[in-house]
């Protein structure tokens, strides 16, 4: 296990806000693990992505653009987007200060290619919804990497706000505010399969799963047969040996089906992750125990919008008239996808059209992330798609192939049964307090 022993620390840890406090005196003594630092750096890059996205969205669209997209009033989305942008900007700078305080450096030279998500307001809203859903899953997954309960709690204080954004975006997208009782945790490689196409020019030191894209361009509902595009679906593994797996909040395990007959499960509303695996064994919905080595591509993220809340209708009564009806083509065809592969690995998977190398070097320690730092980011031009159809929206992706786990210095995660035990014991103390 690699970790950075930087400083000694008096007493308890710090919350991010304490880390944010101006460096009045000497740098604070602090010890942290490399995986903690990596988790914060990763979260910071995602916050940079979000901030860039919202800044450009607010700059590009005016009030008429929002009303033309079917909102009852332009102020309904604008107030929310402004609030969300402010949050993301604050998160970015707070995380940056925290990283610096821990002796690390933020990854500051990424380029965020969000223009394709900003073609029009419906596309932008659908993309924002997707980004916020991914953000929540990213923070959930990153928690397992943080080897410090104070910092993990601090990260969770950000995560709950991301979940608020997610809910608002579900409404602004004209769908269901709170579609599921649980969110799904995804590991950083999975998050990069979903978002990597928007990020280039920097090295996060994290291998990305091979991106997966849903071919279907029309409405996606229960029973819809899905087909996919992915660099990993190239005939090397016969299709008969591949499965598609669906995961939604609250599923104990994924629903596994033959890839050749992959139909959207019944009774899912809201976000649905899809993986392609080389085993029909269902993936566990458990960030520690999921058999990620079977993942060939993905996940991608689709939304099954088969319910529309009254709140969403009130916010966006004109949605049906302004959004392409289901069954027509997918308006959001975005972006490139990237694959991160370790330089030190003998295998390079996926097409590589450009390679950018950089190194995350924590300022104060040469030991941090040793052995895992030097990675290439290979970016390919696989389009990802999001559909903004009124009744169903759609796609993004993930799957770890080049799983190099040196950086995942996961010390302990809890199983669902352990989690319910904690919840059960917490409830009485909460109600008594
Ligand atoms: C708003 O922006 C659109 C282009 O996105 C432009 O056609 C329109 O004239 C603008 N409206 C106002 C009131 O500025
Ligand atoms: C982080 O992990 C290392 C190695 O397991 C451990 O020695 C250290 O005490 C941990 N730090 C915190 C703050 O839990
Ligand atoms: C999915 O789309 C890709 C590229 O657009 C195409 O090559 C492939 O044949 C499609 N797959 C199916 C099963 O339709
Ligand atoms: C495809 O799967 C459905 C159930 O999801 C099943 O009813 C059908 O028989 C399958 N078709 C083939 C060709 O396997
Ligand atoms: C879906 O929900 C309906 C109504 O609650 C139920 O009758 C049906 O069995 C469910 N289907 C599945 C596959 O769970
Ligand atoms: C596929 O399956 C084998 C063993 O079942 C496993 O070792 C391999 O890493 C798997 N993953 C991929 C992405 O092919
Ligand atoms: C949109 O259309 C669907 C089906 O045509 C309908 O059920 C729904 O109420 C409509 N939504 C709005 C906001 O008009
Ligand atoms: C083809 O797919 C296999 C696994 O599905 C993968 O290991 C290989 O890298 C892929 N080839 C290319 C050129 O992407
Ligand atoms: C990004 O920053 C890293 C570290 O500062 C550097 O090594 C790398 O060359 C930079 N990449 C680009 C494309 O500027």
Automatic annotation (TrEMBL):
Keywords: Signal. It holds the Pfam family Ferritin_2. InterPro entries: Ferritin-like, Ferritin-like_SF. CDD domains: Ferritin_like. Residues 1-25 form the signal peptide. Gene3D superfamilies: 1.20.1260.10. This is Ferritin-like domain-containing protein. It comes from Suillus plorans. The lineage of its organism: Eukaryota, Fungi, Dikarya, Basidiomycota, Agaricomycotina.
């Amino acid at each position: 296990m690699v970790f950075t022993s930087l400083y000694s620390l008096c007493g308890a840890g710090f919350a991010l806000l304490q880390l944010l406090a101006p460096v009045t005196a000497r740098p604070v003594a602090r010890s942290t693990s490399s995986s903690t630092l990596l988790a914060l750096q990763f979260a910071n890059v995602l916050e940079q992505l979000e901030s860039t996205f919202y800044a450009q969205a607010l700059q590009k669209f005016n009030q008429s653009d929002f009303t033309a997209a079917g909102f009852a009033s332009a102020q309904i989305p604008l107030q929310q987007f402004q609030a969300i942008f402010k949050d993301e900007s604050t998160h970015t700078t707070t995380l940056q200060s925290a990283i610096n305080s821990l002796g690390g450096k933020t990854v500051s030279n990424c380029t965020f290619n969000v223009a394709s998500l900003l073609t029009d307001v419906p596309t932008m809203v659908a993309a924002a919804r997707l980004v916020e859903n991914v953000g929540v899953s990213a923070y959930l997954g990153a928690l397992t990497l943080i080897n410090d309960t104070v910092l993990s709690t601090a990260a969770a204080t950000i995560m709950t706000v991301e979940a608020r954004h997610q809910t608002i975006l579900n409404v602004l997208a004209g769908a269901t505010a709170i579609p599921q009782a649980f969110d799904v945790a995804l590991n950083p490689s999975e998050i990069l399969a979903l978002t990597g196409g928007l990020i280039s020019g920097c090295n996060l030191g994290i291998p990305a799963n091979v991106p997966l894209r849903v071919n279907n361009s029309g409405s996606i509902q229960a029973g819809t047969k899905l087909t996919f595009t992915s660099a990993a679906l190239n005939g090397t593994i016969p299709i008969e040996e591949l499965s598609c797996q669906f995961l939604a909040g609250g599923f104990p395990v994924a629903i596994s089906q033959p890839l050749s007959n992959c139909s959207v499960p019944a009774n899912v509303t809201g976000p649905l992750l899809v993986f392609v695996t080389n085993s029909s064994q269902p993936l566990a919905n458990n960030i520690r125990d999921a058999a990620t080595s079977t993942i060939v591509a993905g996940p991608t993220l689709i939304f099954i919008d088969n319910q529309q809340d009254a709140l969403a209708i009130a916010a966006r009564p004109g949605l049906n008239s302004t959004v392409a009806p289901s069954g027509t083509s997918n308006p959001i065809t975005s972006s490139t996808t990237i694959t991160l592969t370790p330089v030190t690995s003998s295998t390079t998977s996926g097409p590589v059209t450009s390679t950018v190398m950089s190194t995350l070097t924590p300022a104060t320690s040469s030991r941090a992330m040793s052995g895992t730092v030097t990675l290439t980011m290979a970016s390919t031009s696989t389009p990802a798609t999001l559909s903004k159809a009124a009744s169903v929206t759609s796609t993004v992706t993930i799957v770890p192939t080049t799983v190099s786990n040196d950086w995942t210095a996961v010390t302990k995660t809890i199983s669902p049964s352990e989690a319910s035990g904690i919840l059960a014991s917490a409830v009485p103390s909460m109600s008594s307090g």
